[in-house]
Amino acid sequence: MHTVANKEKLLLRTKKIKGQVEAIIRALEDEKDCFKVLQQISAVRGATTSLMGEVLDGHIKEHLGNSATNEQRDEEIANLTSLLKSYFK
């Protein structure tokens, strides 16, 4: 499983995102300038999108690769389509 194989790397990226979210909370609590808050929000979005891309890449390779049956591919394509629609809302 690709998330298990890359577990440490993915956890490190997720912990960085957690730190960025905590920085947004601190900025709001400390009544920092709205531009600084927006910068932090932008950083979180970029980091989250990057993490999503990395996990998605591994998922596609593992679940839609040559070892998948046509039925498995069809099911996985439907799942991914649904996921991406909700992600881009």
Task: Map the helices and strands.
Elements: H1 2-5, H2 7-29, H3 34-63, H4 70-87
Helix pairs in contact: 2-3
Report on this model:
The chain is mostly helical and 89 residues long. It has a single domain, classed as Metal-sensitive repressor, helix protomer (Methane Monooxygenase Hydroxylase, Chain G, domain 1). Helices cover 84% and strands 0% of the residues. It contains four helices and no strands. The longest helix is centred in the middle third of the chain and has 30 residues, at 34-63. It is elongated and about 55 Å long. The two termini are 28 Å apart. The mean pLDDT is 92.
Keywords:
Methane Monooxygenase Hydroxylase, Chain G, domain 1; 4 helices; 89 residues; elongated; mainly alpha
How far the N terminus sits from the C terminus, by CA atoms, comes to 28 Å
* Quaternary: single chain
Low-pLDDT segments: none
Rounded mean pLDDT score: 92
Summarize the structure.
By secondary structure, the chain is mainly α.
